[in-house]
Structures are given as C-alpha cells and as structure tokens.
Amino acid sequence: MPQDEDGRPLGRHERYRGEFPIVVEGLENRFGEQIVHQNLDLKVRRGEILGVVGGSGSGKSVLMRSIIGLQVPSAGDIQVFGRSINGADPDAAIGVRNRWGVLFQGGALFSTLTVGENVQVPLKQFYPEIAPDLLEEIARYKVMLSGLPGEAACKFPAELSGGMRKRAGLARALALDPELLFLDEPTAGLDPIGAAAFDHLTRELKATLGLTVFLITHDLDTLHEICDRVAVIADRRVIAVDTVPKLMELDHPWIQEYFNGPRGRAALTAQAIDELRKHSDIPAAAQAVKALDKAEKGKA
Ligand SMILES: Nc1ncnc2c1ncn2[C@@H]1O[C@H](COP(=O)(O)OP(=O)(O)OP(=O)(O)O)[C@@H](O)[C@H]1O
C-alpha cells in the first residue's frame, strides 16, 4: 500500500504531497570491477523538471533504472513517494510502480502492436477490470494528449516518423496518469523544431498534469528551456544540483566545459533571443531582436 510522507496509507487515487517524491541516498552500482556510482545522493522535488546530465557512460541511465527498480544497486537506499523500493516485494511495490511512467531511449514500443494497443499494455496490467471499449477510448485520449492525431492510435510504430514514435512512447508513459515521468533522452534524434516542440509539450504536461519529471538529456536547449534544476553526474556521484545559471558559476572543469563551451553559449544566446522575442512589444527588445537576427543572417 503506498504511503504518504508520514507513513499513512494512501488511497488508490491519492497523490503524494511530500516535498521529495524521489530520494536517493548513498547509492552504489557496480558491474564487476567497474564502479558506476558511489555515494550518490539526489533528491527530486515534487513538481519540478529535473534535468540529469553527465558525460557519456557517467551512469545517467543506470541511475534512472535504479530508481524504477530495473537495476538492483549494490548499496544505498532509494525512496519513491516516501517508500523504499529496494528489496520491496513486487506486490507491495505495485502501489508505487503504477504511479510512474517511463519513456525509454528509442521509445521501446512493441512493434507488433498498434500505438493504441501499446498504450493499453500498462492499463491492462494494472487495471484488468476495465472494459475493452473504455480501454480503447482511454488509449486514444492519451495519444491525443501527447500531441498526435487520434487516428495515430491505429497505426503501427513502423508507420510513424521518429518524432511521432517519441510521442507514442510518451502516450504509453502517461497511460496510468502518473505522478512521476521519467524521460531518457527524449529529444535525441529529433530535428531542432521537433525537439523544441517536444520540450514545449513536456512543459505543458508538467503544468497541466502536475507531473514531476526526471529528464536525462544531452540537449542544452532542453536544459535551458524547460528544466527547473539540473543534476550533474561526474566522479560517480551527483556533484551539483541547481538551476543552470547557478551551475554555470561553479568551478568544476566538466561543468565549465559543458555549459560555458561553444555549444553551451549558443544555447544560452538562443534562449536570450527567445526571451527578448516574448517582449517584442517593448521597442528596445524589438530592436535588439532585429539586430541579432540580422547578425545571425550575416553569419549564415
Ligand atoms: N547491464 C550492464 N552490465 C554491465 N555494464 C553496464 C550495464 N548497464 C550499464 N553498464 C555500464 O555502466 C556505465 C554507465 O552506463 P549508462 O548507460 O548509465 O551511461 P549514460 O550516462 O546513460 O551514458 P550515455 O549518455 O552514453 O547514454 C557504462 O560504462 C555502461 O557500460
């Protein structure tokens, strides 16, 4: 039975009201001789989009897999909704596991099922009593919530573009009305316009559905645009968690290279121009945007 922050049992449809729906303490993950995480601590705040960054192979996906119970850590404790998930028996853990949705890298859709049937998989698993026509209706609603046309529910994953497949994966992740959404590199492989649209959708969904989002990404635009805070993994642990501007002030070499390198600065400039555009009713802002656009055209 899921519990609230004071250990009281939560009803099936009650939502978590504590400050930190995810708390990771002293996490260690080893694969043979390789130590991926050691003494890793992280607290995710309710209602935030937490970006997770780190070099390739730094253990971002392993951290996500540990939190959702797909990777059993060698040491440490992980609490989700105030409940330790390590060593929890599967039946008891179900009270927690039906309260998150996951979009894996590449979407991980079943290729032999239509999009709608993919969305129905978790629904059937956790709510076998729902009648087939209602299942179909819920699936179609989730498909549309993810920004796809309703007809996409009848298509097979192979019939969709990369961006549409991501949205279909998102529809499945939203199937159970989760409180927590895990996204593993959602904008990887999308063109800049598709990536910006997916970011926008993530932000909208967070606001309208009251989600807490754990977002692994390499995408600097995503970090600047939609993340409330960003956790940086390096040296086998989380070395900092803060807003992007605050992180940029830190003196760590990886952080400096990542956020203040040429790509980091370009993302920052793009965000600044976006902000200015929002205020183009102010003559000085409109003038600045015009000048910057002209400079960009000159570069091209
Ligand atoms: N099941 C496994 N068995 C052995 N080693 C593994 C396993 N899963 C992950 N690893 C190793 O753990 C390390 C961290 O992997 P992980 O996928 O978490 O990195 P990442 O930070 O997500 O990288 P990327 O940004 O490239 O996706 C890598 O060296 C990887 O080879």
Automatic annotation (TrEMBL):
Keywords: ATP-binding, Nucleotide-binding, Transport. Residues 22-260 form the ABC transporter domain. It holds the Pfam family ABC_tran. The keyword Transport applies. It comes from the Bacteria. GO terms for molecular function: ATP binding; ATP hydrolysis activity. PANTHER family: PROTEIN TRIGALACTOSYLDIACYLGLYCEROL 3, CHLOROPLASTIC (PTHR43023). This is ATP-binding cassette domain-containing protein.
